[in-house]
């Protein structure tokens, strides 16, 4: 699954630095205040399959615990533990509900060893289970209040982990897809419409897709793929192998096996990556009704950033710099905090 990053944070930080220099010390003070969170962050290392994974444990601002724990599962791409700081407003909201957050840099990102492009969705699930076990072993974590938060590509990981660990207290699934191939076609068609592609461009894009799928099903090597498809839109060799490991992914069987794990499904009205109607229909069909809470944000993008900010570099940068909590769709942070508070009180879906 190809994910649009939750926010182009690296580019925003460059813009932010320039703006601070332009606006002076007063603006710098405001930026510092807006980007200070009610958290205690601890750098941690989780050992898994002989490799060290670098991460952050974000604890509530005060208290000794034991706290509940939210284990983060990233979407696609080379994501570090903080997602270039994008996760911190979420960690703060969860801390207010009495939960710590654990997030690891993907293999090969930051100080984490390995290469995330070598992973299957099963590999990612095993890695997440290792993070859950690590968290439960800490004295400041309540092992009975541990759950998962994941976005986008994590939609194929979260149900696997929940199906294998029946003790998980909850799952928060943000913009997840169910079927890799179905999602890929939806994403392609949505982007073609967004770019106002001509009929000829659409036919060519679909032809390339069908050729790519045929080669994937045949187990073709990268050289054969490159020769058949080529062009600036072709995948790298590493990406080709990653897709080859994962293109058959479908979350349906794992969703059925999750049982009654309380699940918050978060969907956006301007999602070019995921067919939210298909996702919601599948989740409602496969999960017990009393275990599922659905929250839909009509003015949000795939990453739950406000749609009015998407594609607007200056407003997006100013918001990220001066009011980062306002990047998200209204209610997004509060609704997740309330969900965790209900889970802690022993309530299910609402």
Descriptive account of the structure:
Strands 1-2-4-3-5-6-7-8 form an eight-stranded mixed sheet, sandwiched between helices. By secondary structure, it is an alpha/beta fold. α1 crosses α12 (313-322). The protein has helices spanning 9-23, 25-34, 88-96, 121-136, 158-164, 180-194, 199-217, 222-228, 237-246, 252-257, 276-286, 313-322, 332-344, and strands at 39-48, 51-60, 67-73, 99-104, 141-151, 171-174, 263-270, 292-301. The chain folds into two domains: 9-178 and 260-344, 3-Layer(aba) Sandwich (Rossmann fold), CATH 3.40.50; 184-243. It is built from 13 helices and eight strands. Mean pLDDT is 91; it is low at 1-8. It is globular and about 60 Å long.
Q: Tell me the distance between the termini.
A: 30 Å
Task: Please bin the fraction of helical residues.
Answer: 40-55%
Distinct helical segment count: 13
Q: Judging from the principal axes of the Cα atoms, what is the shape?
A: globular
The CATH topology of the largest domain comes to Rossmann fold
* Sequence stretches where pLDDT stays below 50 over 5 or more residues: 1-8
Structural class: alpha/beta
**What is the helix/strand order?**
HHEEEHEHEHEHHHHHEHEHH
Strand order of the largest sheet: 1-2-4-3-5-6-7-8
Rounded to the nearest angstrom, the radius of gyration is 20 Å
Number of strands: 8
In the CATH classification, which architecture of the largest domain applies? 3-Layer(aba) Sandwich
